[in-house]
């Protein structure tokens, strides 16, 4: 009879582990992300930002800045959306803080690593053109 209890405990713990595995797979399957394309201009430059927004509010993607001379700079960005507020940054020190003024408009302040501050507005584009890694499929 002593052997029954260890076997029952073993089956019980295996069942718990299996249920935990199913729960984690289920949670991972429900964690989705939206892909969006945002556009705007800054002085004589234009930009397009392809971003992914996870269900938990995390944001990541890439911003392509096309300068007046045609050169394109790429910035990887990451951040967070909390309600109508958004904050994002580039690893070099550029930071953006803003808010959604409608579902298709964002306005805020871009603080460059130098400390210079710029007011910025962006519009959501109708077609994301963003791949599975939130990179723009086509540059400007």
Which terms summarize this structure?
disordered N terminus, 8 strands, eight-stranded antiparallel β-barrel, 1 helix, globular, alpha+beta, 49% strand, Lipocalin, single chain, 140 residues
Distance between the termini: 75 Å
**Helices and strands, in N-to-C order?**
HEEEEEEEE
Shape: globular
Helix run count: 1
- Provide the spatial order of strands within the biggest beta sheet: 1-2-3-4-5-6-7-8
How much of the polypeptide forms β-strand, as a percent range?
A: over 45%
CATH topology term of the largest domain: Lipocalin
Largest sheet: 8 strands, antiparallel, barrel
Rg over alpha carbons? 22 Å
- What is the structural class? alpha+beta
Mean pLDDT equals: 79
CATH superfamily of the largest domain: Calycin beta-barrel core domain
Number of structurally distinct domains: 2
Helix share bin? 10-25%
The CATH class assignment of the largest domain is: Mainly Beta
How many strand elements? 8
**Residue windows where pLDDT falls under 50 for at least 5 positions:** 1-5, 19-30
CATH architectural group of the largest domain: Beta Barrel
């Amino acid at each position: 009879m002593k052997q029954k209890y260890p076997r029952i405990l073993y089956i019980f713990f295996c069942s718990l582990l299996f249920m935990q595995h199913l729960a984690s797979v289920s949670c991972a399957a429900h964690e989705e992300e939206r892909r969006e394309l945002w556009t705007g201009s800054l002085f004589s430059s234009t930009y397009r930002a392809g971003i992914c927004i996870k269900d938990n509010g995390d944001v990541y993607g890439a911003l392509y800045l096309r300068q007046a001379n045609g050169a394109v700079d790429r910035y990887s960005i990451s951040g967070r959306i909390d309600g109508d507020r958004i904050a994002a940054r580039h690893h070099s020190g550029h930071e953006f803080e803003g808010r959604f003024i409608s579902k298709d408009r964002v306005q805020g302040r871009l603080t460059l690593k130098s400390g210079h501050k710029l007011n910025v507005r962006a519009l959501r584009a109708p077609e994301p053109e963003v791949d599975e890694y939130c990179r723009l499929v086509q540059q400007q």
